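Protein 1 of 2
SEQ + STRUCT:
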Amino acid sequence: MTSSNSSSSSQHPHRLRKAIIPVAGLGTRVLPASKAIPKEMLPVVDKPVIQHVVEEAAAAGFTEIILVTRSAKSAIEDHFDVHYELENELSRKHKQDLLESVQSTLPEGVNISSVRQAKALGLGHAVLCAAPLVGDEDFAVILPDMLIPDLPGQGADLTQMVAAYRQHGCGQIMVEAVAEDKVERYGIVDCAGQSPEPGNCANIVNMVEKPKPADAPSNLSINGRYILPARVMELLVKTEAGAGGEIQLTDAMASLIEEGGQLMAYTMRSKSYDCGNKAGYLEANLVYGLAHPETKDSLRALLKSLA
């Protein structure tokens, strides 16, 4: 499937314009809601999670979105396609606001393509599935479970991380400080004792997957946003399956560092909400609902009455 709101795109081989979004997961943490509906299509206020993520990528300057998908996920592709019957009906009834909302699910100037991941063999394998569409370009990986709202007046963290990539000329991994007793839930970066302030970055010397608190080199957790050099895709081809028979993106990034490549940790300023689990999904709806002009007042009143 290829969908487009742009007639053409420039072909500069090292221009940062491609973002891979893996959407092939089963969504078991939000069952039964995801039994028949892709978890990425669950709404946060009035948009599915995946639309929030695509809009985030577009705002950061990405014009080529590559969905790594599987069977039973066609609703995601359909959401970004044209729905002639619906648009004609809304136009006939002069519902202009609703018409514009369904016509703008795909941001202007953005193309969406998709590739299939036949077997669930890990995040690294999902990224590798997109290799034919990425070519020899640097690229981003954006996990759709994580929503990161903009900070008022400060813009988006992904946009800031793209600026850091251009400034330093190397890959960037978004990280978020977590409580010391929760580091064993995440991949943790080692910045040689440094802990960059929010909005800043530092060199990564190592990455540790789900360390015990006593062994963790920091409390900076990898948070589902990556900007990676093309070399990582080459390393993924050579990366052997690890635990659970899966090919891990973290292993390829670690190999890049071992051979002398540079990756930096960008500490986010905002806060992430994991829509891949029930609590995080509810939190995201509250945060986004309190920022939405149509829902903020009634939701604030409800929360006040419950408190």
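Protein 2 of 2
SEQ + STRUCT:
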Amino acid sequence: MTRPIILASGSPFRKKILEDAGIDFTVERPGIDERAVEDAVASSGMSADDLAQILAEAKAVDVSQNHPGTLVIGSDQTLSMDGELFHKPADMEEARRRLLKLSGRTHQLNSAIVIALDGEAIWRHVSIAQLTMRMLDPGFVGRHLSSVGDTALSSVGAYQIEGRGIQLFEKIEGDHFTIVGLPLLPLLEKLRELGAIDG
């Protein structure tokens, strides 16, 4: 017998990943302020993958409290490079500066998933990908951002690798689902274990 599943996310990319995998689920946006959660733990010196996990858990637990008996999936992603943690760009100028800063360098994406049940986290997972951008000409960066528009602001790296953002890279180590922000294979394995999907 399968269990109901909720994706605690407003991300169209995460929603599409689960839809494409044939998972039966509903979506509910969590009511948390991600920046407030980050600010609360900023001085603790925690790693980027720990922060991703804390944010994923906050989302899953927030939605789970209102849906007894339902498995709630929360997910979050952080980007770090040389010990610096990055947030989603606030505007197109910040997106331009972000891409130029990542240009020619390798950064790390930390994608966390948490499953909550009855207001408590029951499973946590973090997957990591290493991405190396090619050297980017400032003129190209401007033209690229003009072509993708505000979608650049929906990603911490100011790129969507599943679209035109793939043109920015010379090397990728890690699976596609981790990069998009929902490590799917470990999630599917756990959902089967929990009896939430047929296995």
